[in-house]
Structure formats: structure tokens, C-alpha cells
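Issue 218. Parser rejects a valid record. Input:
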Amino acid sequence: MTPALSTPARPRRPGARDTAPGPYAAADAAVTELALAARDGSPLAVERFVRATRLDVWRYVAHLSGDRQAADDLTQETYLRVLCSLPRFEGRSCARTWLLSIARRTVADRFRYAASRPRLSDTADWQLVAERTQPRGLPGFEEGLALRELLDALPVERREAFVLTHLVGLPYAEAATVTGCPVGTVRSRVARARTSLIHAIEAAELVAA
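Output the parser choked on:
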């Protein structure tokens, strides 16, 4: 079986430089090639495309929705929409940017649907259930949980910009395409998110000292 594409997964530190690392460009080009091959009917390309991008989609919808218990369903729904839209994909933009734009609409549609239904549970309740099902005791768990809590405290626009550029690894121009706002706005939101995260980390360190 052909191995899945590898993309840089380590998040950048809040104070890192704004420039996108080179490996992302090569990975994005390879993902776009896979998407075009999948569009042309290659089952293997479809499988590799999903495997190469699934983690990015999951991270994005989890942070954007604020509901990690629903992230698996949102990811699956995203790929169902993607497979339906593949015949119309022409490769004019990076496939990963196109994919995350579909993921964003999927989350937005879920919000609209939820708003039209009777509310059965508060978000906090869902998050509590999700936290209880996390595999505690694994290396990096507490650090990951702390980062998640810090990100969840950010305004949604800043959190989305930070996740796209620092966790998913999109260049600012592609993040702007996904969010539908100017590049300058994305840069401003990321800068403010980094500042908030740095202050929150410093405050936590003072409490722990």
C-alpha cells in the first residue's frame, strides 16, 4: 500500500515568524495532484487524498465548532461533500485550501441547523463529556489539553486564523481564501491571537510559580 503523504504537523510557537515553511508548498502541490487524480477517477488517489488531509480537516472543524465530540461527524460530512464536488475541481487553487473552505461551510451549515432545533444540551456539557473520553496518561496529553483550553478562550475569528496558519499550516494567503477575508485581516487576527496566548501562558506560569 502506498504510504500517505506526510505534512509538517508540529504547531509553531505563538511567537514564531509569520513566513510559511517551505515543506508546506511541496506538500500542498502533492495534495493538489492527488485531488486532480481523484477527480479523474483513481480510487487509490481518493484514498491517499483523504489520508493526507484528514488530520488537518479534523483539527480545523474541531477548533472551529468548539465541539470535539462532533468533529468526526463533521469531518466525514466534509469528505462526502468533497467527493461530490471533485468532478468540478480544476486545480486553480491549492486542493487543501479548497478542502478547508468546504469544511468551513460544513461547520456553518451545522450551526445553522442546530440553531433551528430545540437546544438539548449546553456546549459546556458536550465538552465535559469529550474531555472524559480523552486518553489521559499519554505523553503530551496535559500540554495538548492546556493548548486546547487556551485556544478555546480566544474569539472564534482569531482562533480560526491561528488554527489555519499555526496548526494546519496554511500560508496567510490561503487562510484568507478559506475565511473569505483579506490577508491583512488574517495577519491581524493571528497577531492578536498570539499576543493573547502569550499573555495567558505567562499568567499561568506566574500562578504555577
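Fixed in the parser; the record now loads. The domain at 21-116 is CATH 1.10.1740.10 (Rna Polymerase Sigma Factor; Chain: A).
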